[in-house]
Amino acid sequence: MEINNTIKSIARFSQKIKTEYINKRDLETFVDSVKRLGEKVVVVDVRNNTFFKTKQGFGPRELAKTLAAKNIEYMRYPRLGNPYHQNYKEEPKKAKLVYTNYLRVNDDAHAELNHLYGNLRFKKTFCLTCYCDTLDPRKCHRYWLREALINKKRERLGFPATFSVHQWNEDPTKEETEVEN
Ligand SMILES: [Zn+2]
């Protein structure tokens, strides 16, 4: 692939991955903000635990139903949540390392990362969703997950990634066909 097309492809890929949060929002506000992201939106729920705010309609089953009524898809990847979240709140730098390392060494998390990556489609917008009502990329794993997905794309296209979440038996540059649906 020509270099300009490669860069365009990474930019296009990056634009398709957004993030949203649940804390301090009611269901309507959340759904509205998600709906604004694009014509075909997929909410990718990356909460490790979904108990909090279940009564407000944010439990996976009810949330999926509400979103479906608004023509928004819903997918859930619980292992892409951040089990170390509480431990590293005060040390955001360390937290990123811990999370990306978790994606690499935890087989279930790694499988979910690959599954999600394989499901990304150019004609849809994917919204990584968790509780954290922060816009500070250092404080919430949804930003690092977004970065991990973009890094995966970069590697597949032959660019060096800023960090790698590939396991030892994977070849990041192996052939990939772009699915346009
Ligand atoms: Zn979060």
Any key phrases for this structure?
single chain; 181 residues; alpha/beta; 4-stranded parallel sheet; 6 helices; 4 strands; 41% helix; globular; binds zinc ion
Question: Would you kindly provide a brief summary of this structure?
Answer:
Helix content is 41%, strand content 11%. It is α/β, with parallel strands linked by helices and 181 residues long.
Q: How would the blueprint of this fold be written?
A:
Blueprint: H1 3-15, E1 17-21, H2 27-35, E2 41-45, H3 60-69, E3 73-76, H4 92-105, H5 107-119, E4 125-130, H6 141-156
Parallel strand pairs: 1-4, 2-3, 2-4
Helix pairs in contact: 4-5, 4-6
Bound molecules: zinc ion (ZN).
